[in-house]
Specification:
By secondary structure, the chain is an alpha+beta fold. The protein has helices at residues 2-25, 92-106, 150-160, 167-179; strands spanning 29-35, 41-50, 53-58, 65-70, 75-80, 85-90, 116-122, 126-132, 136-137, 140-146, 196-199, 208-211, 220-222. Helix content is 28%, strand content 34%. The chain binds zinc ion.
């Protein structure tokens, strides 16, 4: 029994180590902020520039529980077994696709063949119970995964798609996105450093945090 536990701990640790290594190797860029046309920011939790294209990872901030979702449904469900309670949250696929449109907008004219991959990644403690989605939305390849499958998903992307960016494009884009990467402490605006103030239209709408510097700074995010 003890041996089994030790083996389990070892394999978990090894898995985590392998994931960290791969992320480092692939030049993971955390918290990339891309300005939209309307002045607001798209917030990409993790971004990878690979020879096969650009991967945008979005991590929904739901509570722990079982996830049910479907493409085309505006709100998805997280069911907490412990609390025996359902909560709704806005479709993370839609959010990540809109982030990718912001990326396309700033990269217009760089390389028209650039491919985009959308990865919605649920954090540890979430289990994907039911998920219906198409492999593609327009020209964006879509994945909805649990956090432990990130390395596998990145490997699949590299294995199953041809090269569209050359080495200098990959490194150039990585440097560009690194310049858009900002610390996110959750309390301050990552763009201008002012405090964030909660805002909710009414009880039925999602809670947002707006930058106290509005309208000079248009940063805002879901709470
Ligand atoms: Zn701000």
């Amino acid at each position: 029994m003890l041996l089994l536990v030790l083996l389990w701990i070892y394999s978990e640790q090894y898995n985590k180590y392998a994931q960290d290594l791969l992320r480092e190797e692939l030049g993971e860029i955390p918290n990339v902020y891309v300005k939209r046309r309307n002045g607001y920011y798209a917030e990409i939790d993790r971004l990878y520039v690979l020879p096969q294209g650009i991967v945008a990872v979005y991590e929904p901030k739901t509570g722990k529980g079982e996830i049910s979702g479907a493409e085309g449904r505006a709100s998805w469900i997280v069911f907490s077994v412990i609390l025996d309670r359902k909560n709704h949250f806005p479709s993370p696929l839609t959010i990540n696709n809109s982030n990718i449109y912001a990326l396309k907008e700033v990269l217009r004219g760089i390389n028209p063949d650039t491919r985009y991959f959308s990865v919605v990644m649920f954090r540890q403690g979430n289990i994907i119970k039911s998920m219906k989605l198409n492999a593609k939305k327009d020209d964006i390849t879509q994945y909805v995964i649990e956090t432990r499958n990130l390395a596998k998903t990145l490997r699949n992307i590299m294995k199953n798609h041809g090269t569209v960016l050359n080495n200098s494009e990959v490194y150039g884009l990585r440097d560009y996105f690194k310049s858009l990467s900002k610390q996110n402490d959750g309390v301050h605006c990552p763009i201008c450093g002012a405090s964030l103030t909660p805002f909710q239209k009414n009880r039925m709408t999602p809670k947002y945090l707006h930058c106290a510097n509005f309208p000079n700074c248009k940063y805002s995010r879901l709470e």
